[in-house]
TrEMBL record:
Enzyme class: hydrolase
Cross-referenced InterPro entries: AmpC-like, Beta-lactam-related, Beta-lactam/transpept-like
Protein's name according to its UniProt entry: Serine hydrolase domain-containing protein
Annotated PROSITE patterns: PROKAR_LIPOPROTEIN
Annotated Beta-lactamase-related domain residues: 72-364
Lineage of producing organism: Bacteria, Pseudomonadati, Bacteroidota, Chitinophagia, Chitinophagales
Pfam families according to UniProt: Beta-lactamase
Signal sequence interval, chain numbering: 1-25
EC number: 3.1.1.103
Gene Ontology molecular function: hydrolase activity
Keywords: Hydrolase, Signal
Length: 392
């Protein structure tokens, strides 16, 4: 592999690749060596009995939960895939083009993990401050007191463009851009949802504005910054940020009855959505979110800490991450996504170095129940506990 920052050397008798399109029949390699720009670390792979236990449990779980999924899923422990499956068609309406390992799905709000970590990379590098007022980036921003950190934590109180543009009679024949989201805050000036900084409310406007801040600070387009900073170094070769030129090639999404969602006026806004990726590329992203890759431990600790305490409960929101705190001290990190017919779940169990990734392009709410599989790795008490987008 040509990547200078990160590549994998895999050694296994009788095999030539770490991933397999049919991972159900794949046996674990004996060792792997991870080589990056700073160190070479030999890591023992899972013992066969442990691998088989994870594989069989996960297979039984998903065969039951998602037998009608149109999409893909992957489960991994210590970076090693224990289950990987691709089901259905890019166009389930016409049953055309089978989904494969390179089929990139719209991540919907799971895209926010990239926006958040890109912002934190700029913070870690000293190029912005989380306490910066938005007037530093947007002169005379009409909602005083909003900071970068409030955008990350959904505590800004800003109105959600997904709702106010329609209520303020935006011409739906015109596709909305991030710049339009910003400008309409000035021109339409919809009211705050609540006093700035007072509590949590999930809001896509926050992350559309963060994408613009990333562009201002980096002097690069959002898509180029993500590609240069994350996608290319990690060889996430099937991951990209959608734009209008991708309309004919990007994976479409469908309602549960196979009705296709057409391009609509909100579909060009990025930062809150519009990263497309595969389960294999998302595993690379998961593995990069440990100290020593792109981020210092202090940066990760900030990202994965809770910031909203107005309501009692186990759930909270960090800097771009949902989280559940259990009474036994366990912490489950995740983010869900839902846009049109796309449902996605990205679940990280950092104590066990395990991850669960599910991507679908045909509406299927059961994807969000994938958190229940966390109990296979530890005492996460997730049976019967899931939710869609909303309060932490």
């Amino acid at each position: 592999m040509k990547n200078k920052n990160l590549f994998l050397i895999l050694t296994i008798a009788g095999a030539s690749a770490f991933f397999s399109c049919n991972s159900q029949s794949q046996k674990p390699p004996v060792t792997k060596t991870v080589v990056d720009s700073s160190a070479t670390v030999a890591v023992n792979m899972l013992p066969k009995a442990e691998y088989d236990r994870y594989h069989n449990t996960a297979k039984h779980f998903f065969d039951s939960l998602l037998k009608d999924i149109n999409g893909s899923y992957l489960v991994a422990k210590d970076g090693q895939v224990v289950l990987e499956k691709y089901v259905g068609f890019i166009d389930p309406q016409r049953k055309k083009d089978s989904i494969t390992s390179t089929s990139a799905f719209h991540l919907a709000s799971v895209s926010k993990t990239f926006t958040a970590m890109a912002t934190l990379k700029l913070w870690q590098d000293g190029r912005l401050r989380l306490e910066d007022d938005l007037t530093k980036y947007f002169p005379n921003f009409p909602y005083p007191g909003v900071t970068v950190k409030m955008l990350l934590t959904h505590r800004s109180g800003l109105p959600n463009y997904v709702h106010y543009l329609e209520s303020y009679h935006w011409d739906k024949r015109k596709l909305v851009t991030n710049e339009d989201v910003l400008s309409t805050l000035y021109t339409m000036h919809p009211p705050l949802q609540f006093a700035t900084g007072k509590h949590f409310a999930y809001c896509n406007t926050n992350y559309a504005l963060l994408a613009l801040i990333i562009e201002k600070v980096s002097n690069m387009k959002y898509a180029d910054f993500l590609s240069t900073t994350f996608f290319k170094p990690l060889q996430m070769n099937d991951t990209y940020v959608y734009n209008i030129s991708d309309s004919l090639t990007a994976m479409p999404s469908f309602e549960y009855n196979n009705r296709r969602f057409p391009l609509e006026f909100l579909d060009l806004v990025y930062g809150d959505k519009n990263v497309y990726s595969t389960v294999r590329d998302m595993l690379k992203w998961d593995q990069a979110l440990y100290a020593g890759k792109f981020f210092q431990q202090a940066t990760l600790d900030s990202a994965f800490s809770p910031y909203s305490f107005e309501k009692n409960g186990k759930r909270n929101y960090g800097l771009g991450w949902r989280m559940t705190f259990l009474d036994n001290g366990k912490k489950l990190l995740y983010h869900n996504g839902w846009w049109h017919g796309n449902n996605t779940a990205f679940i990280r169990l950092i104590d066990e170095h395990a991850t669960i990734i599910v991507l679908g392009n045909k509406f299927n709410k059961r994807i969000y129940q994938s958190k229940k599989l966390a109990d296979m790795f530890g005492d996460y008490q997730q049976h019967g506990d899931f939710e869609e987008e909303g309060a932490p």
